[in-house]
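Re: that chain you flagged

S.,

Sorry for the slow reply, it's been a week of failed gels. I finally had a moment to sit down with the sequence you sent. For the record, here it is as I used it:
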Amino acid sequence: MKSLLALPVRVGALCAVSAAAALAACGGVAASDMTATTASTTSATTASTTSSSTKAGLKKTKWGKNMAVSYGTSTIRLRSNGIPNHSRPEYYAVPKQGAELGAITPANSEVAADPISAQSYDYKITTNPKKISKTTAAPLGSIGMMISGAVLFNPYEADSTTVAQASNFSLPAPDGSVASFIDTCNGHSTPAMGNGGGQYHYHALPICVSKKVDASTGPSHIIGVAFDGFPIYGKRDIKGKVIPASKLDKCNGITSATPEFPNGIYHYVLPGTSNATSSIRCFHGKVDSSLITQMPNMGGPPGGGPPGGGPPGGGPPPATARTSSVAARLLCDLTGLSL
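Prediction finished late last night. Pasting the structure tokens below so you have them in one place:
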């Protein structure tokens, strides 16, 4: 009988470890973040839940005119072609065809015309987000929709280690200007490397976007919504003071009053840093994984896989990881636990 009573505890640990392994295989978090994510997931066998309603605040948000915004009973629907409503440079520094996945440097990059291409975004995001004690790693690819019509990515490049903001550089462009890896709005497009691409996205606070809704002094306003339903803000609190990254949780979140939610709400902050805190690294709310668009391969030969074989950056985990995840989920379902 004692061994049967202990089963849910052992299975819960298996679920947590398997989930952490699967997230690591998918490139969801950097190796430096995995320990904290695993520990948090393991300790939260029963997740506490806090619900919020965001519809009223989101209706005050200045969504770009290039977006179609509508509301359901408990959702906001955001449609966009992914091309932001702000200017972009004519040229970017992009990985060379056949470049190894990993850190993008001047040595393995070249100058190319802006590789952006239209997307077909159609997201239905909950307006009743639920903050839970467990967190879900923010994978490579889209993790939130911004008011400019473009999406937000986590801080990392395809190797899930290189912080995009910290690795920015420029190359001379044909017209005499400079071609940067990350533009002045802290964004760039995934290049079309024979595997699709052209998805413009931000890795940090998009300054040119926040300027559209924020004064030079005063509080930050909503500049986006994460796929778990919680709003995304710039770096200043309701009193106009800069929020230090040290005051944010590991997901870049904080609970406080904002202009749209004067009574307070959990929300994400993009603090304007150039390290791993520059963007959201995990979700603190329940998230619908079907909303997330995995990042296309950033390098390698045309036709798919990276030079060394295996899945493209941000792609699905190896079969072994996927199998263990399915097995763990089955055990969790049988015991009434959840991943």
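What I noticed first: The radius of gyration is 20 Å.

Talk soon,
D.
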